[in-house]
Fold Transcriptional repressor.
Amino acid sequence: MQEKIRKTILYFLDNIGKHASHNDIINYLKDKLGELDEREINNELLKLARENKIISHVSVNKEKRYEAEVRRHYHFICRQCGAVRDLFMEAGAVNMIAEYAQQLAKSYAKIDRVNMSFQGICHECRKEIKY
Ligand SMILES: [Zn+2]
Ligand SMILES: [Zn+2]
């Protein structure tokens, strides 16, 4: 079962819910595999994260989102509908910002991770806003 849970989580994150909440994952797995012990799913999520097969470094409305895209990237988040899109930014641009932040923080910290997100209204939501 554990192997099936693992495969289904990865399939879901790869193909359907690219930035899925914990609930999205639980609901999809229960739908596909029948009644499941949520602890089994949680254990598998932890294992996949430890193996660096999935990450959760973006939140929408304080809700963690999981994804199987583990290459370095940043996010666009729609303020209206919460849609999340990946932004693959050139390392040079990000390093410049990180170095600047390191300058500002140098008396008290060593920065070793950058987690940036950009917000706005996606085109889908913009279409629905009529003034
Ligand atoms: Zn939107
Ligand atoms: Zn992402």
In short: Residues 71-131 form a domain with the Dna Ligase; domain 1 fold (CATH 3.30.1490.190). The beta strands are 20-21, 55-60, 63-67, 74-78, 84-87, 117-120. The chain has a mean pLDDT of 94.
